[in-house]
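ARAD1C07502p
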Amino acid sequence: MVSTRRARILIVMAWAFIVCVVFVGYKRTQQNRDVSEFLGTMDEKTRLDPEINKDATNAGTDPGGTNHGGTGAKDLSTEPGESFNPEKELAVLLNETPILIFSKSYCPHSKAVKDLLLSEYQINPQPMVVELDAHPHGRELQDYLGTLTGRRTVPNVMVGGVSRGGGDEFRALHASGELAESMQEWGGSMFRIKKLSPKPGSGPGS
């Protein structure tokens, strides 16, 4: 009798474990699908129209011509009375631009990637920099990104809703001369990118 009862308990526990695993897997799949579907609804023609993106481009450029990109340091998705939803926040950010640079303002690796993408390449529409240490829900957003992309550290560069790496990956592609080509391949027609020519007198020995 005791053995039968234990067997039944073990069977129930096993089924409960299986249900939990299936549920967690479904939720992660649904999150990825939601992001993909959201991107699919974006009007590529509108996003690439230079007139529509002119204000964003000018806002990120100082009189000297240095491209700084937009900065997301506030909650863009939570309505009054609502709890913060990182999935919804990411969807709103992706609607702003196809390239997101998740960063922390004090992180030297983040600064290196921002300087690289925003100063040495011309990208239209511009990337948006999201400073997680300045965002009111930065910790929650970073935790969600860690679950979604497998990368919890910064910088975390998302292109078209997919994490493409951090400082090491982007510096390596830049050094090999493959960064612009790789990013264009990842993003397709969502944006345009080209490497800027070095300014006169900026090379070694100048």
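thats it. The beta strands are 70-72, 99-103, 121-124, 128-131, 156-159, 162-163, 192-195. Confidence is low (pLDDT under 50) at residues 41-69. bye
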